[in-house]
């Protein structure tokens, strides 16, 4: 082997990592740095696990079949947990009264059904022999965890495990919907203020300061007083409408910095439209630090909803929220410890997971840590 060939082979063996580091994109490098944070990676797995529970909640715990054949047709009654209108009207017309095992056998002997893993309902108490060989759910202080009620029952005899499983849907919806709304408002207002500057920046900055002075709790209390029936969607809207200010301020700061970069000046010289520059060129480079307050905001939204439900200002029952479960065990905490321990642990670990993810993103996108090689 010649000297040149030996030199080339040495460079090929010793330099691939350095070359890959230099050619790796920003988001790829951020993801690799995020994975080095073991707690943040574990928190991400936990959030994915909670999301799967929320998606498949009707198949995990419920009294409605996942799929059944009734009078020659295939139905999916469990979809009624996601939206009552998605449950086929034939079960109301035939007066099932939410009791499927007995009615399927009596009204159609040829019927069959695939049932959820746990036969318990988050909205009502299970009666004796409703499911063959299963006793009625106990209530009150007698509803401690047992073989049929894994996490016990509440004061009305409703299964806590079923409410916890279906309550993950509310926790995930509150976090993502409210902060999705907040992110849309905050990024739009912050980007407009930071990019255009001048009197537009002054007006929008004063608007941000005005909204920051409005407490979320006062708005929700006013909403409860005005509306006859409060739903979880009302709470998400209020949290989203009042939770965008920190995102807007950070977006404004990033746009003020990035609009002076050379590639933005070059895009202007080429005649690219303002909104195309804002949302195609500037926003994609400003998005990394903006994701951090969004992640922390999801945790804050879950705490806010749980606190409101605990205080009795949340969505009207039946509402299988973790905060509602906490509220049901508040008066008898010494006798019904399971009504406080299990939902409290779920809220704690979920909020902790989102905070760890936000901290991991903050460290992964910090340019000072990037330069230090951490």
Tell me the helix content: 55-70%
Largest sheet: 3 strands, antiparallel
Number of strands: 3
| CATH topology label of the largest domain | MetI-like fold
| Unreliable segments of 5+ consecutive residues | 3-21
- The pLDDT mean sits at 82
What oligomeric state do these chains adopt?
Answer: single chain
User: How would you classify the helix and strand content by structural class?
Assistant: mainly alpha
End-to-end gap: 40 Å
What radius of gyration results from the CA coordinates?
Answer: 27 Å
Describe this structure in words.
The structure is a single chain. By secondary structure, this protein is mainly alpha-helical. It folds into 2 domains: 62-137, no CATH class; 161-372, MetI-like (MetI-like fold, Orthogonal Bundle), CATH 1.10.3720. It is built from 17 helices and 3 strands. A 3-stranded antiparallel sheet has the order 2-1-3, with no helix packed on it. A hairpin with a 2-residue loop joins β1 and β2. α8 runs parallel beside α12. The two termini are 40 Å apart.
